[in-house]
Automatic annotation (TrEMBL):
This is ABC transporter permease. It comes from Bradyrhizobium retamae. Residues 1-22 form the signal peptide. Transmembrane segments: none annotated. The lineage of its organism: Bacteria, Pseudomonadati, Pseudomonadota, Alphaproteobacteria, Hyphomicrobiales. Residues 29-368 form the Leucine-binding protein domain.
Length: 404
């Protein structure tokens, strides 16, 4: 009997030990960075996002529990079917536990639907669709950095406060641009402004001449660029040739990053208004992170974009939740992440809401004139700060089924 009891106890001990080990699937937490490595978002995301995720894993350093972390990555090519196929393989075959980054709203919404109620967490740090925390909200998804509601409403509010009542939009004919234009238009019209017109273009457009001419002829006070990446850069460069800003019109870019400004140069970008969640030169913490990032292999001295900073912050937050719960399953990690309310070293005062939206301050910047810049990547001057509780859509207005 004694031998039987000893054997039973040993068997139960092994079962309990096995269950504990199984909480970290395969004894490794795998995070997949999914983004545009070869297209128009390669500078703002690309391999820089991969390095940001690796930095987060290094800083996590096992979470005090010896937890192993592995970073993998893939190029979704800005195609929803390609992104979906990659993530399905990560889920079914490769044992990936979380997907991070995902610029391109069409790809992000597809991934969001695919991962709903699966074991995988979706860290949508670069997906701009506000539907992710609205009608399409998922218990598996956390959305960091920015979204179309914040971009559209807060940018419109800041510009209208400075006298920008009449608008004309140049918009990418894609979920991202359509969402931003719709949100901004709603705000503008509700607050006594007017939208005089809108010109649509496909993703990755090389020639904006006819669209800019329409914008110029509209006489609108503000020309809103509801696009991103190379499209925004091309539009700004060609607008400089047209002399739009010199003629009294103000250009505002809803989604522009430090990498884009670096690519176009201050001579072209000077005076441009833009809306950002992160700027590398804000304080000691952001500068320290940026210096480390710039020294990474393959980064070649570039400063991090807001999206790349978001990959770091969301990856580290997820890993901290895994350490706290002892599980890399979304049903455990995501609720743990939503408990967080405090200071993030890159994004300031942060709260993660029940709808999955991470709220933090947002900033309206103006691109400096060449003579105002004192060192490389010294490109922005702060125009206004939008507090966290005003920068994002109110929790009750999103229609998220997770909100009680």
């Amino acid at each position: 009997m004694r031998g039987l009891r000893l054997g039973l106890a040993l068997a139960l001990s092994c079962v309990a030990s096995g269950a504990a080990r199984a909480e970290i699937s395969d004894n490794v937490v795998r995070i997949g960075v999914l983004n545009d490595i070869s297209g128009i978002f390669q500078d703002t995301n690309g391999m820089g996002s991969v390095e940001a995720a690796r930095m987060a894993a290094e800083d996590f350093n096992g979470g005090g529990r010896g937890i192993k972390v592995e970073i993998v990555y893939a190029d979704h090519q800005n195609k929803a079917d390609v992104g979906s196929a990659i993530v399905r393989k990560w889920l079914d075959v490769d044992g990936v536990d979380a997907v991070v980054d995902v610029p391109n709203s069409a790809v992000g919404l597809t991934i969001n639907s695919l991962l709903r109620d699966s074991r995988m967490t979706f860290l949508a740090s670069s997906t701009a669709s506000s539907d992710l925390t609205g009608k399409a909200c998922s218990p598996n998804t956390i959305q960091w950095v920015n979204d179309a509601w914040a971009t559209g409403n807060s940018t419109a509010a800041a510009m209208m406060a400075r006298g920008g009542k009449e608008w004309y939009f140049i918009t990418v004919n894609f979920a991202l641009g359509q969402g931003i234009e719709a949100e901004a238009t709603n705000y503008i019209e509700k607050h006594g402004g007017k939208v005089l017109g809108s010109a649509k273009h496909p993703l990755n457009t090389p020639d904006f001449a006819s669209l800019l001419l329409q914008a110029q002829n509209s006489k609108a006070k503000v020309i809103g660029l509801a696009n991103a990446g190379g499209d925004t850069v091309n539009a700004v460069k060609q607008a400089a040739e047209f002399g739009l800003q010199q003629s009294g019109q103000t250009m505002v870019a809803f989604l522009l990053f430090i990498n884009d400004v670096h690519g176009m140069g201050l001579k072209v970008g000077q005076g441009l208004q833009l809306f950002e969640a992160f700027y590398w030169d804000m304080d000691e913490n952001t500068r320290a992170f940026a210096k480390r990032f710039a020294a990474r292999p393959g980064v070649n001295g570039k400063m991090p974009s807001g999206n790349q900073a978001g990959v770091y912050a969301s990856t580290l937050a997820y890993l901290n939740a895994v350490a706290a719960t002892g599980s890399d399953h979304a049903k455990d990690a995501v609720p743990e992440m939503k408990k967080f309310k405090g200071k993030d070293k890159l994004f300031g005062d942060v709260t993660i809401r029940q709808d999955g939206r991470v709220i933090h301050p947002m900033y309206l910047f103006e691109v400096k004139k060449p003579e105002e810049s004192k060192y490389q990547y010294d490109y922005y001057k702060l125009v206004s700060t939008i507090p966290a509780d005003q920068a994002f859509r109110p929790l009750a207005d999103g229609g998220c089924s997770l909100v009680k």
